[in-house]
Design brief:
alpha+beta, 5 helices, two-stranded antiparallel sheet, single chain, globular
Length: 162
């Protein structure tokens, strides 16, 4: 488990912030195949670590990504996701031989958890391949929005390929 983080923002400030990030490949195209998945995960892990957050679980699927982090409050979630997406997209395009230019889609989901929920969230993330044999990403994402009572308008969500 993650220990409480001492923030450099203010003396005697301690946090325990667990966030699951979910974001998709542009147009939800299946561009991250099994041959490069582990390398992409390692690269994103390095980004998260270099930004002084604790990566607790990651699974990159062909068309989307789940990451569980212990968030360091020195950086906003939006800035972290922007850094992950921009740096990993650049690296994928420069390092991997994909049939087309790689991009993450705009937007993301960020969902909070208590410490007691962390083991089940880690298990959920690490079992994504099996999980998605039964349920598609769109259905999964809408379940997150419902579960966390997040008001949303479908026209502002990811571009879905039917």
């Amino acid at each position: 488990m993650q220990k409480l983080q001492r923030s450099e923002i203010m003396a005697n400030t301690y946090t325990q912030l667990y966030i699951q990030l979910v974001f998709a490949v542009k147009y939800r195209e299946s561009l991250i195949d099994e041959k490069i998945r582990i390398d992409v995960q390692k690269y994103i892990t390095g980004i998260v670590s270099n930004q002084e957050h604790k990566l607790m679980a990651i699974y990159v699927l062909p068309d989307h990504c789940h990451i569980l982090i212990g968030l360091n409050p020195k950086q906003s979630i939006a800035d972290l996701v922007r850094t992950i997406k921009s740096n990993s997209s650049k690296w994928i395009n420069e390092s991997m031989s994909l049939k087309k230019r790689f991009q993450w889609q705009e937007g993301y989901g960020a969902f909070t958890y208590s410490q007691s929920q962390i083991p089940s969230v880690i298990s959920y993330i690490l079992n994504q391949k099996e999980h998605h044999r039964k349920k598609g990403f769109k259905e999964e994402y809408f379940e997150f929005l419902r579960k966390f009572n997040i008001d949303h308008d479908e026209k502002y969500l990811f571009d879905w390929i039917s």
